[in-house]
Amino acid sequence: MLQDILIPEIGDAEDVEVIEVLxxxxxxxxxxxxxxxxxxxKASMEVPSPRxxxxxxxxxxxxxxxxxxxxxxxxxxxxxxxxxxAKGASDAREAKVVPETPSEASPEEPSAPDEVDxxxxxxxxxxxxxxVEVIEVxxxxxxxxxxxxxLVxxxxxKASMEIPSPVAGRVVEVPIETGSGVAEGTxLVxxxxxxxxxxxxxxxAAGSDMDAExxxxxxxxxxxxxxxxxxxxxxxxxxxSPPLPETTAAPDTRANTSVYAGPAVRRLARQLGVDLAxxxxxxxxxxxxxxxxxxxVKKRLTGGGGAAGIPRIPEIDFSRFGEVERAKLSRIRAxxxxxxxxxxxxxxxxxxxxxxxxxxxxxxxxxxxxxxEARSVKLTPLAFIMRAVVHALKEFPTFxxxxxxxxxxxxxxxxxxxxxxxxxxxxLVVPVVxxxxxxGVFELAQRIAELSERARDGKLTIEDLSGGSFSISSLGRIGxxxxxxxxxxxxxxxxxxxxxxxxxxWNGEIFEPRSMLPLSLSYDHRAINGAEAGRxxxxxxxxxxDIRQVLL
Length: 552
Ligand code: CAO
Hints:
By secondary structure, this protein is an alpha+beta fold.
């Protein structure tokens, strides 16, 4: 049966605009699933579907000014889907209103500026979520907050929830910190308000919204009335208060629904016209924070780099073509992917390939076998490569550097901390051998072995992973004749090592069998020009061909 869903009662609001369209033709929607978000000068309102079914047509587009009773969508309602009680189209007016600023929304509310109230903000009803942790604390004691300002973000294994301030006032207590485990009712923040807290303000105390991974499963019932205690000395956010709905998507809603960000951040992004998909999240698990949005805008305004205008790769439902399996990326892999993307988009890469004749070096390495066994160290070519790289870096300091001030200055490092890529089950990590210039090959081999073992056991510390000045990615054990490693920005160069192979080499008279080691140097072309890179590679190859030069 076809059903028309209309704009619900919107009070005396004027210039109500469609700011988000949350569905597309053909979508299956559930009862209470958002269809569109409209916004007036006073409030934003998500219009939910009163019936489950399939969207047949959509009668509004972004930016439309709409009024009560206007057609939103036509729905092919599913049999028996009328969970809202066999309501017709006009009953779509169960839409929920979130006042942007309760004081504006109810200007007639009297205030009592002389009365100071303490308002305790606690973790609201979080369903059956377990292992809930504070992942962001956005305020500190002494901060002034406005209604709806973000206070705290909590996260369970299923979803995250932003907890905004229900009142305007001054933060006087923050008894939790990032990483604190919390449960329903845990005290998060105490806000002191001057004046009486209005009903609507108290109601918006619970105006948080689960988002991200499982919004539909974790959103509490948004239709219930919220509790508030407006008259007591100390007002406490009822743990059972169900959150009111909020806008849960940015302007390009269909493209951005996979972005990991909460409603307040999404609203900010919408206000600033920022496409959240382009913002790198610095929060836990890559969550986009308000600061990230501000930083993004600032960078744009100052002409800083970024992935402006890069078209998104469309998300495709591959199950339309055959059986698929979905595997979540590990945290390491997801973070690595973000770092690689950032480097790839910001750094103009060039890769230079060459081969080093390491016949003598291999003979030397083999001759050291008894000693390495006595020291219980596995002496692989990597330790010698590190030794030669450090020597080359000293001769070519621009390779041991970072760009600064938007590529207008170069920071040359006088330390030699070499990162090396380690392939682990959880993904790629790059631990750092500190002060590699002060270590001999056995010590380097020892450090490589220790760090790669800890990497594979997931026991690396932040210290182990930070401070690198140049990186090496060795695929020697695995194979291949060359590849283009991605610069580990803000470093400016990375050396890729492939598998050494016996090859015929012309010595002027005859072809000789020689052990040839393929090397691939990727560099940031803003920092290093092609001639410099060519000279660096030639020098590195000469050093590997005659490792004794490292002693000079
Ligand atoms: N050519 C031929 N054989 C090589 C070689 C090369 N270039 N480099 C190492 N080998 C040999 C070693 O000599 C050793 O042989 P033996 O067991 O016979 O002595 C064997 O390969 C295993 O070496 P290894 O991998 O255990 O040790 P390593 O020091 O060469 O490398 C590490 C250590 C951690 C870098 C490596 O194990 C690793 O994880 N590499 C993957 C890095 C990666 O994924 N890079 C891609 C990143 S994308 O840019």
